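Appendix B. Chain record.
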Amino acid sequence: MEILPPLKGKSVQSIFDIIDPLMEFKPAFIDVTYHREEYVYKQREGGYLERVSIRKRPGTVGICSAIMNKYKTDAVPHIICGGFSQEETENALIDLNFLGIDNVLLLRGDPIKTDNVIKNENNSFQYANDLVKQVVNMNKGIYLDEELKDVTPTNFCIGVAGYPEKHFEAPNLTSDLKFLKQKIDSGAEYIVTQMFFDNQKYFEFVKKCKENNIHVPIIPGLKPLTTKKQASLLPKTFSIDIPETLLDEIEKCKNDTQVKEIGIQWAIQQSKELIKFGAPCMHYYTMGSAELTRQIAAAIF
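Structure tokens predicted for this chain:
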């Protein structure tokens, strides 16, 4: 399952309230997303700009530690490129290593509005493949400070993202798979896919990965639709398709309660078919609510 850190000011109990109902299904791991701090630039007297923080979801490292301490289940923090210098990324990885958190999901991360104001201002990486190389180096005992002596190598298991319907910036799936292959060749050990609603997209993606000599586990990412609005919003946001059969059922719904029921049943059938196909496990985008994932898991596991 994948969950969101709470907004600043909320307690870790809000995370436990999401996870508690799902522990009976013994999840293999729990992903914790990381969201960049966002800023606005306000004009001040004299014509200069002052950067003001407007949003932050704190505590991914701390939340992962709390999850592993409470549930004895692997927690997987997201590590992203944008907004962090290479040194800050290394320090976060050192903290994770100290805490015994040895699985990471490395992502470029979504752009934020202020990316158009100042680019790469803090020596951050631009691509997930660079993050993979940094973590692989630490696994070899190679840190940014080349003068360090008698260093202890880390032992991170590295995951990366895959896009069955291609990344929205890629000109085509072939090009996208080339960059995915680079991440695997650099040392990534498994793939978690973007959400999809048509299993055939996953089956074809796995086939094409094998044709490109990508043989690591490919974990399908699933999210049930919950509102009519999502049927138009998700394709625009994530560049994914909604199958006609699913869309027809959604359009028949009189309210979002009915949409949720359709979304749950669709995710259940997706899960059953993916398990039969041989997917290594299911990755549910649980985010801030446990109930839908609980209903799906109860029908599957």
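Further analysis of this model is presented in Appendix C.
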